[in-house]
Known about the structure:
Structural class: alpha+beta
Shape: elongated
Number of strands: 19
Number of helices: 9
Helix content: 25-40%
Low-confidence stretches: 1-7
Radius of gyration: 24 Å
Strand content: 15-25%
CATH class of the largest domain: Alpha Beta
Strand order of the largest sheet: 1-2-6-3-7-18
CATH superfamily of the largest domain: Zn peptidases
Amino acid sequence: MTDTPQIIATIEPVALAQALIQRPSVTPVDAGALDVLRAALESLGFACHVMTFSAPDTDDVTNLYARLGSSGPNFCFAGHTDVVPTGATENWHRDPFAGEIVDGALFGRGAADMKSAIAAFVAAVARFRSTHGDPADWPRAGSISLLITGDEEGPAINGTRKVLEWLSERNETIDACVVGEPTNPTELGDMIKIGRRGSINCTVTVHGTQGHTAYPHLADNPVHRLLDMLQAITADPLDAGSDHFQPSTLQISSVDVGNPATNIIPATATARFNIRFNDHHSSQSLTDWLHEKFAAALGDGDANYELAIHVTGESFLTPPGPFSDLLVSAIEQVTGRTPELSTTGGTSDARFIKDHCPVAEFGLVGQTMHQANENVACADIDKLSEIYQAVLEKYFAAP
């Protein structure tokens, strides 16, 4: 077995999490967070590739792909070093980028979502390497990789999906992936996410004819038509859920006419709404459904409307099986708790990874993510690192 540098056995997950939190990497700014991570990974023998992607009307985003080993299977950990803004700093009891430990909890923006999970995985790899040495000496040959973006909390255009495209161009594959999002509602080991609902953001604009409210016959009121259209799509549930998903939901977030006057019928009326959908639907089937509902609501009317749809992700599911069983076994081994296999919550970058390999999400407790005074228990960070190490031990066990 190849000798392993002493630093490998001394990477502490809480200390590395502190160092990452101390880099104020609010989307899309990196602020040196990837430099911290790259230094830790290179000390473990990872080959690191830092890449910056751009697109029209978007900010440049820096990403990292690191790999230890060259053969398959390639087990990947995916995550993000970017964080959401702090909000009003006066609502924080301490500096959100100091990474302070108070009463056994690590405070700071990104502590839960999800710099601590990244640190936990790196420390897990360090201990795995300390035990098993170089990839050629592992019980089962293979590779470990990390795909880390700075764009998950932003528009998610120049991050994970472009790194995946870069990997495809190099004919490099990922065989299984854990995303370190904070999946647990209350206690570490509560929940694994094996899928996510899809999400589309919709804007419908109805055009009418402006006029005086006292002479409605000389105008065409778009507000009335819009209200009929919204009633048509909210009157009944979209579905009753499926085997692994809760019911789909449609929520109206805004209705606007931009009209400060009480005696004017406006020329246009706009509504915005979001649909979170399960595996009964796709973005295209929902688009068709919306047009059908709007047509039925308008009846013989000749309303002129526009429907703009932005798809943030399709629903997906990694069916329960060997991969989820491995994760459950590792979690049970460390925590004694059997996690629920869930598809609840919002979107994550797993929606891009699912097209390349089986993917599941497991990280820390998410009760304070995106809040002021975001924090996680240091003991949970250590335990999460133990879980990740157990996952690696089981994945790379001898056939």
